[in-house]
DNA sequence: GTCTATGCAAC
RNA sequence: CUUGUUGCAUAGAC
């Protein structure tokens, strides 16, 4: 075990780019330190973001996260156990391709899993190497976007739990917001509009190479029973990068709700809008639905979008009473 | 405070 | 070869 970790540090942490571009490498090191220690001062407009993603520290963290997540209880860790040998052989080539914008992600693997309600959830599972790279991207985007995200957004974010979200709903309810609209976005992950997401990303991320890499991940396609299918929309359910991408897009919804003065609580795609009067509920529901469809290109499921008194409302697995 | 390992939950 | 992010709990090592 300890030997494996030692190997890890050497293989993933070893940096061949250091020889050819020591200046860029040192810059990345510095940026890494700034992001880690002081979120406020990092310049998101940097064009050095890719170097930050490919820095040894970030890649090491990414490796350990990907390995650690696999159910390594004992028997089945075949997928991730192959990552270290692969990186030992190909990491220089991999990093070079990523730097030159030549890297092409592999299609995701389609796996259907049954949901509670009997329907199937379609997972899109990237290869271990792509999970590794996506994790590295995610780790750099998280501190950048944590500053931009809304205080009422709770899903997929560090130091924020579903319980925190419920407490926030309770606070609003106690302050006179007795009615709520529970928006249901139809197959949200599968219907994310690539152009819109890239547009929103580009406002903050100024390193075109990173934008391009993420775009390639969105378009990587999917293998369904040994047949390739292109992906024109959606983010893969199962990619390490997908949670933050979903929050980046839905942060636009948060901003719109704030602009209109509507209190809300959002956990991933599960959004609760709170209003004081019953009469306002349908008007708000309809205008926000129009916004989601026209501006964010997301479909609202009107049948499953429920309006009711907060008391008795079921949210994030709990009921209010 | 950092880090391993189980287990549960939300989406 | 059922993936992912996040949170909580328990045990243990510094």
From TrEMBL:
It comes from the Bacteria. One of its GO terms (molecular function) is metal ion binding. Residues 94-320 form the Reverse transcriptase domain. Pfam families: RVT_1. GO terms for biological process: defense response to virus. The keyword DNA-binding does not apply. SUPFAM superfamilies: DNA/RNA polymerases. InterPro entries: DNA/RNA_pol_sf, Group_II_RT_mat, GrpII_Intron_Splice-Mob/Def, Reverse_transcriptase_msDNA, RT_dom. It catalyses: DNA(n) + a 2'-deoxyribonucleoside 5'-triphosphate = DNA(n+1) + diphosphate. This is RNA-directed DNA polymerase. The lineage of its organism: Bacteria, Pseudomonadati, Bacteroidota, Bacteroidia, Bacteroidales.
